[in-house]
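Thread: "does anyone have the structure for this chain?"

Original post by V.I.:
We have the sequence but no experimental structure in hand. Need at least a predicted one for the grant figures.
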Amino acid sequence: MNETVLNSYSASLNSVIPLSIASILSFAGFLYLLWFIAAQEIPKRSMTNGEISSQPESSKSIIAVTFTPLNNALAVMALSLTGYYLTSAIKMYPSGLSFDVNNALISVFLAFSESSYVYYAWKRGIFVVRHVFPRFGEWVAKSIIIVPPLVLVQAFPSIVLCYMKSRNHLDFYTKPYLDANDLLTGFSGLVVVIFDLILLTAFIKFMKKTKVIDSDIVTDEKLVIVARYGIGAISLSLSMLFCYGIYLVFTVLAFYTISQLLVGSMLILLLRMKVLLFQQEEEERKILEIRITKQGRASVESKAGEGMRTSTATVGTLKRGLGV
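Reply from O.Q.:
Generated one for you, tokens below.
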């Protein structure tokens, strides 16, 4: 987060109230995620996988379903946004150690929320990218090792500044760290923009191809959901960066607050995407079970018919052998 922006940011009611509400809603999103995992995913996935035969296996199944990479990313994003909005709302000290600690926390929470968003978007969108850009998709798949750390590094200067000031380094020269903070923040923003544009292009191309007759892409409803909500989340991400850029140029507080709130809107869309994907998966599972049941009945009836024909033929043979 830009240090100059943080220092010039006033804790007025116009920003404190919406940020406080956003903090509550973000934590509510985290609680909803926990409820959804406990009430929907764990029971249905455990029954589907047939892993409830013994207590140890059941415990392993619950852990595996709960702590998936995607669930972890959403949980980190929700908790990070809760902390980000909370620390932004209580930012009322113009100077001093409390101000420096708060600035560092804001930077850390924002960095983790952005990196978890990038990871979740990548994890969901990589299959679409591979469909649309088969050669380029492999490179994007490997980029996840690099991109989140590049986003997280923006918080490092604020942490160092907070630590040095807490050690009572009165003669500590802060300008290089402030410049580094501005540079890393801008660089992280650029990385996110490039990442978003790549995914956005892939999603739009995928949606267009699914509407074309005789397309070479087989329509998968789950991929359609990912593409549709991915477009929405990325649009919010780019809008957030755009509003933040306007604030840097014109220093209008409303644009800064809007940019903050747009990050939370991305969480809502990603949660909605998760729910719809789960519902689609359950619907496909039920359809598959119906097909398997019908095939099983047809197989049984076929075998029964063959058995009847075999029995009839055998009886006829015996009769002829006995001269009946």
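V.I.: this helps a lot. The chain has eleven helices and no strands.
O.Q.: and The domain at 3-270 is CATH 1.20.1070 (Rhopdopsin 7-helix transmembrane proteins).
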